Amino acid sequence: MEDDVRDAGPARVVFGTGTADRVREEAERLGATRVLLLSTPSQARTVRRLREILNPLPVAEFGGAALHTPVEVTERALEVLRGHGADCLVAVGGGSAIGLSKALSVRTGLPQLVLPTTYAGSEATPVLGETEHGRKTTRSAPEILPDTVVYDVELTLTLPVAVSVTSAVNALAHAVEALYAPEAGPESDRRALEAVARIARALPAVTARPSDPEARADLLQAARLAGTCLGAVGMGLHHKLCHTLGGAFGMPHAATHTVVLPHAMAYNASAAPDAMACIARALGADGSAPAGVYDLVAGVGGPTSLRGLGMAEADLARAAELAVAQPYPNPRDPTREGVEALLIDAWHGRRPD
Ligand code: NAD
User: What is the ipTM of this complex?
Assistant: First the structure.
């Protein structure tokens, strides 16, 4: 059997229901005495609760985390952090709050405790994507990885169904691309396929019963597995395209992943037949893996076209050009014409074969 040794996953993970109640003791384990609480604007209630649980550690709050981690937002938060002499970051929310925590930590060296409330998976990766002047750049370093992750299923119960769907497909995308990554190995394959199977099972259950803690826990575990895949191996064309569409065209992160994934898979299918066969099996799909993902999304009422997300048809050619401007590993060579054809299919929302 091949060896598969990687540095992936956070230093400490607490997973369960009601685990947010332990956040003060977890922060103290990291040496916190002055906590800066980070969140997105819609998380005010959860922030209030955490403030009480963490009492008396919080010295300041910054609720302005935003998609794609804009550098100007990080700079404003940095002023708050320095103004209050914070010595630990506690972020609650999705990839936006966790991205801000990473951006602050990389600039200050402060420890990070994060409580994920979506399925984006950023908590499990040493990767930070930031946007400045309409361009998204990504860096990776071991110290970017959050020190402690507290998953509390209860915090996910309020995630609206539409966001749950797109966020879960964002997680699915990590697992799918991990299966055809050049660094893929037996351990990342195992985790990725388990994530695919769990998402295919748990997502319809969550959309049918959004307040069911069992279904939510299943989906959160799947997202965690998918996040560790994202942290362990490089991503391909699908992620590159979504970064381009988000960074240069302001497209919403998770919804764009949801629309593009079946089409990026269809582009790669002929060059990664084994991965696609495994994905189709894990999805329980009768037909191809790309069609299986498209049907899963359509079946839970998720977005299926870039047109529906407000992308201008006139921008597709430029997006294709940007997405192939620099080489990166992908099973099939990303050509400008091929990627533009893929984007046209995604714009119309055509079901792949
Ligand atoms: P997000 O963090 O912006 O959350 C989406 C929306 O849902 C926000 O309005 C948020 O306030 C709200 N929300 C979150 N949790 C909620 C809850 N439980 N109840 C009610 N509302 C809730 O978006 P996201 O999709 O989680 O993350 C996307 C961002 O994360 C992007 O910037 C993306 O680039 C980044 N990301 C980074 C990595 C990485 O490894 N670096 C991985 C995945 C995503």
Answer: 0.99
